[in-house]
Amino acid sequence: MKLSFYGAARSVTGSRHLIETPTSRLLLDCGMFQGRREEAARQNRELGFEPKSLSAVLLSHAHIDHSGALPVLAKHGFSGKVHMTRASADLAAIMLQDAARIQESDCAYVNKKERRRGMQCVRPFFDSDDVEAITRRFAGARYRDALKLEPRVTASFHDAGHILGSAAIRVKYTARGNTTTVLFSGDLGRANMPILRDPDPPPPCDILILESTYGDRLHEQAAEEMKKKAEALISHARAHKSKIIVPAFAVGRTQELVMRIKELVTESRIEPIPIYIDSPLAARATAVFRQHPECYDEETSKTFSADGDPFASRYIHFVSTVEDSKRLNAMRGPCVIISSSGMCEGGRILHHLKHAIQDEANVIVFVGFQAEHTLGRKLVEGWDVVPIFGVPTPRRAQVVKFNGLSAHADRHDLLAYIRAIDPLPGIVFLVHGEEKQALSLGAAIQAEHPALDVRIPHRGSTHDV
Ligand SMILES: [Zn+2]
After folding, report:
1. Containing structural domain, residue 335
2. Are residues 201 and 255 located together in one domain of the fold?
3. Ligand 1: distance of its center to the CA of 187 in Å?
4. What is the pLDDT of residues 270-327, one digit of tens each?
5. Tally of domains within the chain
6. pLDDT at 43 over 90
7. Where in the numbering of this chain does the Beta-Casp domain appear (predicted)?
């Protein structure tokens, strides 16, 4: 068997790993690179392997850094199937359509400027036709079912507890009575996340490909502490008729926040407060969440059967039209507005910030990682004047950050995941982490299991196993 790493190797985005056996070429994930525009564009156009040569693709989950280059495969003649869980198939379809739209409008914006400078036009690396072509190749599987991909190769999906439909993927290859098993963790979630079941214990494997996003970090803030902080914020909003503006990713994080606020209401810790979810993608994603109760944990299943819809409540409002979104600008609080993008780089959140940021009664709440150079990062860093739509805007609203909401396993969880594999695998490849994270986790694994072969692959490297 050969393993090659084409992305998310000593970095986080562009997850793409290839398993080759004498009879098959299986691609694990086909993610989009994100980061500096030109470098990312090149990595997204050139996959590093020939799409036509692939037998099949196995997708761990729908996040764009894992699924976002799938349409490029269709564009270049890939004609196999893309296997994933059923929930992932539904989520990936709407997220890829959204990604195509964003690319088309980004390119139109860049081209407008480039044409003025007499430069060549950029083209999206895929469009909505490519998205349609690849979604026709999607095959939804149930968790833990063994899929026969070829006479000697089977694959199965195991709950990863990261986002709806997320899975660790196990590939089993048998030849001359010998079986080799590869387990790819995908992105690992954490126990006790709202909505989702806890990650399945890892099945036995010979080779583990493990994510390392938080390889040198432990998550802060216990659940009870976060609840107290949210309680205080909502009481503040009530007393000062303020708006709580929450930039959040439309898929996963938004639904999680709704469930967390509902929980506070159910526990009578807060009075209901109007929540506006202002993102068409979040509305579409929530519809997918409703269609997949098989992914819920026990608590969410109970809510689902009690009121028919875990995401509905008289105080929760989905905002779809632009007019309704604009109406929120003039409205007075108290209310919570959840909108995207999560790092304030575009989308409707910018309008909400523009209208709310100069009022000291308002609060901007961050619930996720803010990358360098983004507006979100500037706000988290406490800048007093920030650019919104290119206009320097004074910030008077309070900024609050919640650190404990990550959907990723931390260092402690990752080490526990390896410990739970019985018997221990022979080789562990660490992927999906910045170099510093991967190296630190690698050293910790090696110290705990001296006999284990721990490797941190470089992008483009191939390993015989
Ligand atoms: Zn993910």
Report:
1. 223-401
2. no
3. 5
4. 999 999 999 999 999 999 999 999 999 998 888 776 767 888 889 999 998 999 999 9
5. 2
6. no
7. 254-379
